[in-house]
Amino acid sequence: MAVVMDFQKKKRDKQIHSERRALQDLSFEKIQSAIHHTFDRYLSALPTGSSMAMEMCAEYALESFLLGSSMGRFGFYGEREEVVFERSQPKFDMLHEDFFDFWRFWSTDPEELRGIDQACRTFLHGWWLDGFDLSVKRLRMKLH
Length: 144
What we know:
The chain has a domain at 51-144. The protein is built from seven helices and no strands. The chain has helices at 7-23, 28-43, 51-70, 72-76, 81-87, 89-104, 110-140. The longest helix has 31 residues, at 110-140. The radius of gyration is 17 Å and the shape is elongated.
């Protein structure tokens, strides 16, 4: 008798394994310093304190990092970073919109919202690049 395999479960297990490997290279201190560097002027204006916003920023940084990490294999096989980013653009845009919606709740000033939008895009793109670069590096060193 043949064994019946659930390919969706197998794919999910493989994804979890690769995400765990990618997150080994990431430190929470690095995420916190990036959050402070990018969002300090906006965090101080929040009425409820910045702990919830810090957690949300860290969560979106992780998601963006994992998205970039999942695209690293294309860079390993020779695709340019810009082309790979275009490939992940729909997921990245969805992530950016969700992140910006969180910040939009706290501000109504159109000028400040433009700055927040740019800060969100820069923040997420930086984490996407970190995930992508670390994934390519791991693949080149055969640590995958």
